[in-house]
Amino acid sequence: SPTNTPIKMAAEEPKVDEQLNIPDKMEEQADKVDDKVEVTESQVEAADETSDNKDDETPETNVGDQPATADEGATDKTKEEPAAPSFPRTLIEFGYKFNDNGQLRQVESDEPFVFKVKDSDQQYNQAHYEALGEVITEHIYQLLEFDAKLTRTDIPVDVKSDEAHSFIFESQDARTADKLMVLIHGTGVVRAGQWARRLIINDCLDSGTQLPFIKRSVENSYGVIVLNTNRNTDIINGEAQPVRGSESAEEHTIYVWDHVISKCEAKRIDIVAHSYGGVAVLDLLVRRFNEVKSKVELVAFTDSAHSLPRQCSNQTEIAPWLAEHAVNWVSCDEPLDKVVAYATDDAGRLSAGTKKHEETSWYSINSIFKFFAGEVDYIKAVMKPEEPVSKPEEPVTKVEEEPVTKSEEEPVTNTEEVAAKSEEILKSEEPVSKNQEPAPTDKDIDKRVEESGHHLTATKSTDSCPPTEDIKSGCCIVI
What we know:
Elements: H1 25-34, H2 48-52, H3 91-94, E1 96-98, E2 104-106, H4 122-147, E3 151-155, E4 166-170, E5 179-184, H5 197-202, H6 205-208, H7 211-219, E6 222-226, E7 233-236, E8 239-242, H8 249-259, E9 268-274, H9 277-287, H10 289-295, E10 296-302, H11 308-311, H12 318-325, E11 326-330, E12 339-341, E13 348-351, H13 360-363, H14 365-373, H15 378-381, H16 415-428, H17 442-452, E14 458-459, E15 477-478
Parallel strand pairs: 5-6, 5-9, 9-10, 10-11, 11-13, 14-15
Antiparallel strand pairs: 1-2, 3-4, 4-6, 7-8, 12-13
Helix pairs in contact: 8-9, 9-10
């Protein structure tokens, strides 16, 4: 059963440099991982897709004409190529088995997979690896049928007996279930039920196959359909023939949608698409947008290679739909579910918690099913937060203040304010008029008192006033 922490990689695997010719940079990165394997010997440079392009068959080696004789100065000589090696057709014959933990182990020693079979023959080692991969593909098909209880459905649905054909897998209730889960793998040698061959061989079945996703889907009452987008040819009379309706991953996805998925009774469809599977999903949106948006609820991409600018000329409808219905768990060194890019004109991006492209599906499985169950609103999480809108400043109307009377004045404690206040007061006082009588002197006052017959006790302002009994006239003037 799936766990939160994937099993550590058991061994290294073949390393190659071949890439698919896909213009988009993300697709190039996806193909490097989906279609090639790392080896312990860095000199090996053959990709898994080499065998894939020859339709899952051991390639026949064309034997050249007999070597030219040395007489007559012949210079155009052709060496006879060795016959292609013959390999076993079952895991046991290869000397391998999957243990109870889903790990590939050698039958005799219980050791992990070893790439180097012959020390000095890298070509043979690569061919051995590819042949083992084909046997594993058939083993996964059997697990889908006997362990996951899925059934094969021929593609095209009206295939003739002598016609090239492919197939998909579906659960028995896929056509009638209320909810439907659609699983789409990436490009290269992987087939239905697989995410990455290199993980199946070097890690375990849980991380490298879709079996944990199928199990979780069934547990959550989903019907299941597993696409097989890379089986585009079939051998008829010894020759590879294209499969009608499945000439490419995109055509396969459209055909299965038109003839199978759209005819299901499900009221809700959710999709998990890894790597180039995202390209197929976007192509489906472009060509069947109205149908898809009416049936598909959520899409979980895992390191998807889709590109709106390249695939979609009119993004006005599709881009907003992706932003509101899809999340892309991408490979990076950030913790699981941390926002990597907000959903603006595409699906928002969250970290899958791993830097390895092929591990993104396995690492994000728990988050994906929380996403589908509505336990975590990842759509809201990847929406760019709105920037606070600053309100326009209202014009300030100046209110005229009423003049403050002296009794209403507030105390002023600042020295400078005191000085200013004082200066203001001084300026406000009325100056002495030229016609105004000057203030009387002491002599003037004494004379006026004598003339009036009153008694005057004059003191300085610093002295106390005399007692009232000493004032004959009842009048006291303090100067």
